[in-house]
Design brief:
five-stranded antiparallel β-sheet; 2 domains; Neuraminidase; four-stranded antiparallel β-sheet
Amino acid sequence: MIDAGKTKGILLIFSLAILFTIVGSIKENEYQITTDEHDQRWPAIYKDIVVWQDNRNGNWDIYGFNLSTQKEFQITTNTADQLYPAIYGDIVVWIDERFGRKDLFWYDLSTEIESKIPTESEAFGDPAICENIVVWSGSTEHGHQIHGYDLSAGQEFQIDTGSHVQ
């Protein structure tokens, strides 16, 4: 006759052994991307590229890390703050304060060209990007709405036209 208590005990030990093996293999694959002692915030990832805002230079800059090559790289160097990065493909977008207001900028990792997104709104929310479309919360004389910009067409469009804060 099979002892139910022993069977449960053996199954519990076997299950814990499998769990510890899985957790151990996850921890083996975990590593720290940046070891700088200053603050790093707002990470975003697309495939093997991680971007974040980094305060190591006394202001917030945007940095990146290629998981495949294990190489870190700096994207912005302006002395004003660059905040809230987002990435899709080779394009990184962020909020930039270099002109005394919160503008949107983008950087093409493949061409290493940085550009300001020409917009009437001042950004106050994290930008997001998918394919060639950048979206953000923006403030104009009409209030706070959700805005978009098509990078390939070079055209801004308003997503929300409501009168309430979005």
